[in-house]
Amino acid sequence: MLFNSSQLEKFRQDTPGVQERIHFNNAGAALPPEPVLQAILSHLAMEARIGGYEAAIAARREVAGFYKAVGRLLNAPSRNISFATSATEAYTKALSSISFKPGDVILATEDDYVSNQIAFLQLQKRAGIRLFRTKSRPEGGFDPASMEKIIRKHRPKLVAVTHIPTNSGLVQDAEVAGQLCRQHGCLYLLDACQSAGQMPLDVTRLHCDFLSGTFRKFLRGPRGAGFLYVSDRVLKKELAPLFLDLHSADWTGADSYSPRKDARRFESWERSYALLLGSKAAAEYALKAGLDAIRERTFRLAASLRGQLSEIPHTQVLDRGKSLCGIVSLHIDNWKPLPLKMALEQKGINASIAGHNSAVIDFDKKGVEWALRLSPHYYNTEEEVNTVAERLKEVLEKQA
Fold first, then answer.
1. What is the pLDDT along the chain (400 residues), one digit of tens a residue?
2. Strands 370-374 and 187-191, how do they pair?
3. pTM of this prediction exceeds 0.85
4. Cα–Cα distance, 343 to 341 (Å, whole number)
5. Does domain 36-288 have CATH number 3.40.190.80?
C-alpha cells in the first residue's frame, strides 16, 4: 500500500516545519503534525485558565484515550499500557521490576542501545548478574542459533533486544527472539524506541513481556513522553518497579501497600498532561495514516537515499542486515563529524551524528569512530532524498 499524492500533500500541510528545512533527523526527533501541537497547546491553555489539577480532571476522558490509542498501536488492551517521560525511563522501570540475584543472567545483543548496555553493566556491578551477548550474523543482527544456545546453557532470567539500534538501519528479528523466550520461559524486554511509528508492532506476535518506546521519534510526538507495554504474565507475577508512589500503589496500612493491578503501576503520579495528550494525538495520527503504508514509504525513501549515497566517492554506507529501515548511516573518509553536520545544516538539512561511544561494538567491527545518520520519514519527498544526496556531494567536492 502506498500513499497517494493528496495524502502526502496533506501530511506536509500538517507539518509546517517542512517549509523551513529538509528534516532527515526523524530518528532523533521528528517534526510533529499540527494535531499534536494543538493538543499540547490547548491543554496548557486550559491549565492556565482553570488550574493544573482541575484541567487534568476536565480532560480525564481524553487522558483515558491515550491508553486506548497506544494499545491499538501495539494490538494490546489499554490495561497493559503505561505512560512514561521517556523510553529510557520506561525501560529502566521494567528492568527495576525484576529481582536479580547474584549469578542471574541477562542475555542481550551486540546491537542493544547504549543506555541499555550501561544499565546491564550497572546491574553486573551492583547485583552480581552475569551478562552475555548473542553472536551476530555476518550480514548483521543477532544470530538466533547463538541466542538459543546461550538460553539453553545459561537459562537467563531476562533476554533483552533492541529492535532497531540508534546508529544504523538494522532491523533485528524481534519475533524470533520472542518465540525463543516463550519456548524457554525467559522474560523478554524489547526496546522499540526506533521502530514505534516506523513500522507495525504487534505484541501478540512479538511475544514480549515488556516493550518500551518514545513519541518524539517516528511517532512524531512531543519530547518528554514515552510508553511501556507490560504483559499480563508480568502483571500476574506482581512485578513492580523499584520505587512506587501514591499513583502506582495504595498505602493500605501503616506497614503495608498494594500495587495497582494494571500496567499503570509502572507510572508515577506526576506527569505532563499536555504531553500525554500530545502523545495521544501522535498515536492517533499514525494509526490514521496506517503503519503498513508508513513502513513501506519510509523504508523505500531510505533505500533510495542509501543507493545514491553509496555512489559518492569516499563514502561508506554502514547499514547491514537482511531488513533495513528508515535510518541510513554512513562514514566519510577524512572528515570530522561536527564540521560535516554543520555543513549540511548550512544547506538546510537536518541530520545527526552517532559517536563511537553510542555503538562501541558495532563501530569497532565496522572500523569507524562515528557515523552520519540520515533518517527520512513518510512525510518527506523523493525530491528531498535527491536533494540531500546532491548537497552532500557538493559539500564533499568543495572540501576535496
1. 689 999 999 999 999 999 999 999 999 999 999 999 999 999 999 999 999 999 999 999 999 999 999 999 999 999 999 999 999 999 999 999 999 999 999 999 999 999 999 999 999 999 999 999 999 999 999 999 999 999 999 999 999 999 999 999 999 999 999 999 999 999 999 999 999 999 999 999 999 999 999 999 999 999 999 999 999 999 999 999 999 999 999 999 999 999 999 999 999 999 999 999 999 999 999 999 999 999 999 999 999 999 999 999 999 999 999 999 999 999 999 899 999 999 999 999 999 999 999 999 999 999 999 999 999 999 999 999 999 999 999 999 887 6
2. unpaired
3. yes
4. 5
5. no
Nearest CA to 121 among 284, 369, 361? 361
Please give the CATH number for the structural domain made up of 5-31+290-399.
3.90.1150.10
Amino acid at 278: G
CA angle at 77 for the pair 71 and 83, rounded to the nearest 5°: 50
CB 219 within 8 A of CB 196: yes
Cβ(157)–Cβ(184) below 8 Å: no
**Domain spans of the chain?**
5-31+290-399, 36-288
Task: Tally the residues of the chain.
Answer: 400
Q: What does residue 84 show for φ and ψ, rounded to 5 degrees?
A: -140, 165
